[in-house]
Design brief:
Mean pLDDT: 92
Shape: globular
Low-confidence stretches: 491-499
Largest sheet: none
Number of strands: 0
């Protein structure tokens, strides 16, 4: 390892410990509502007392949290750049990623209350024997989880895939304490994240070994993955695992099995349908003309059979989409579409505010069509297939009505295949989302929370819009000129060899 590489690793470790120490301090701005049994303890809680972090309160504590996440973002850029230059061996990055994931076990739940919703929907199905796509937590206000689930979701039916709802019901049958729910869902997230890293590392080592350190670092050392996805127990890590596993299967020429894996991912969260559709398109386009209907039937049949098995207990006429339409009605505070919606509403009221609601979905559909056409135009290399998935997922992330930090995890397993512009857009989006959350509870840090919202609306969202425009312009140029969707390996420079 070069001297710069060692320094980058050191800065990464310092930033991780800094964020973890702030997170493990009682009353941390990073913590959502927690039950008594899940409050901070362990080595990072001890460290916060030793260095005096637990003596900081109020806005000063929130400011310390901002410094911590800003340092984490800067350290991530530094270590990512050094891995791209080949200055850090892959094994060092891999072991550091594993160490970070293990260390997350010693900090409390961070940033999000989604695990409480997972548990609540699981209890509605397993304990109250009701359909969570029809009933809501508000129908069972006596449950212990009622004090912890997010207010926005208290009267909302399930919006997650039926496979995840079934998994949540299994968890609800096994445990019944709120702290136990947190522990189980976080362990699932840690296991899914480490498994994704392992799949990606093995695949990249075989296909493009000089990119292995970068591919592992953008996943395993990424603060938005560690603190806002894994430490929050989000099921998006399972979606990332399905995408990484499906890509490995495509490289192994087992496309039908890859379809099955992506179908499972889609049944956790519907976003995995983007690579699923593109994979089926490739499988059909590759087949001889007389075999295409048979190939389409095989892939469609596998996906449909898996979907019916997972969805059968929850099918209903009240919400036949099982949460998809419900989710589409929500709007995220960082999403570019939200800013345009507010601007058009301010200018022309309800009439003009409909324009972004129509234009953004149409632009997304157009990007998927363009990606699909470029994908089947010419030689359908496996790298191009993975890159097409990355383009589609990144467009979905930035064009969708909701943008949350853990959404970026869908595309990260494919970063090593993306060319320069979408790769920079993905990294830039990660950085923006790292610093997007300073506080979790408005009641605890009211002024800091308001400042966080203003920063998100008027600083981060315009930056994300600029990144989106750059992404769409580059995609248009590639489709117009017939340029490849994937990156070429020669872009990675050789290590400098300086020590």
């Amino acid at each position: 390892m070069s001297r710069r590489g060692r320094f980058a690793i050191g800065v990464s470790i310092v930033s991780f410990v800094f964020v973890a120490t702030v997170a493990a301090t009682p009353g941390s701005p990073f913590s959502p509502a927690l039950p008594a049994a899940a409050r901070p303890s362990g080595p990072f809680r001890w460290l916060s007392g030793v260095v005096g972090v637990d003596a900081v309160h109020g806005n000063a504590f929130a400011a310390l949290g901002v410094v911590a996440v800003a340092l984490a973002a800067a350290a991530f850029v530094f270590v990512l750049y050094e891995t791209w230059r080949g200055e850090i061996p892959p094994r060092h990055v891999l072991w550091l990623a594993v160490a970070y994931h293990v260390a997350l076990l010693f900090i409390p739940l961070l940033f999000s209350r989604d695990v409480y919703s997972y548990a609540y929907y699981g209890r509605i199905a397993a304990v109250y024997h009701t359909n969570p796509y029809v009933a809501t937590p508000a129908d069972y206000p006596q449950d212990a989880l009622a004090a912890f689930v997010g207010p926005k979701w208290f009267d909302t039916p399930a919006v997650y895939g039926p496979l995840w709802t079934q998994a949540s019901a299994l968890v609800a049958r096994a445990v019944d304490e709120v702290a136990q729910f947190i522990a189980v869902f976080r362990v699932i997230a840690i296991a899914a994240s480490l498994a994704t890293i392992a799949v990606v590392a093995r695949l990249v080592r075989r296909e493009r070994p000089r990119r292995e350190a970068f591919a592992v670092a953008i996943l395993g050392l990424n603060p938005v993955v560690l603190f806002q996805s894994v430490a929050s127990g989000h099921n998006d890590l399972l979606v990332a695992l399905s995408i990484a596993s499906a890509l490995a299967l495509v490289y192994a020429r087992r496309n039908l099995l890859a379809t099955a894996v992506l179908a499972l991912g889609t049944l956790v969260k519907v976003t995995a349908v983007v690579p699923l559709l593109l994979l089926v398109l490739v499988a059909v386009a590759r087949a001889p003309a007389r075999e295409r209907w048979r190939v389409l039937a095989a892939h469609g049949g596998v996906a449909l059979a898996i979907a019916l098995l997972a969805a059968a207990p929850f099918l209903n006429t009240t919400d036949p989409t099982l949460g998809v339409f419900e989710l589409a009605t929500h709007e995220g505070w960082l999403a570019p579409s939200r800013l345009f919606h507010r601007l058009f509403d301010a200018v022309g009221g309800e009439t003009l505010e409909l324009i972004p609601r129509i234009v953004f979905p149409l632009v997304f559909v157009a990007t998927i069509v363009a990606i699909g056409r470029r994908l089947v135009d010419g030689v359908m290399e496996t790298a191009r297939i993975g890159a097409a998935w990355g383009w589609g997922l990144l467009c979905l992330t930035l064009l969708g009505p909701v943008l949350l930090p853990w959404y970026v995890t869908w595309t990260l397993p494919l970063a090593w295949l993306l060319p320069r512009v979408p790769r920079i857009v993905l990294i830039g989006t990660s950085l923006g989302l790292i610093v997007s959350q300073w506080t979790s509870e408005p009641a605890t840090f009211a002024s800091a929370y308001d400042a966080n919202l203003l920063f998100g609306h008027y600083v981060l969202t315009p930056i994300l819009i600029a990144l989106l425009v750059w992404l769409l312009v580059d995609l248009w140029a590639r489709v117009r000129d017939g340029a490849p969707l994937e990156d070429t390996p020669h872009e990675v420079p050789a290590p400098t060899g300086k020590h």
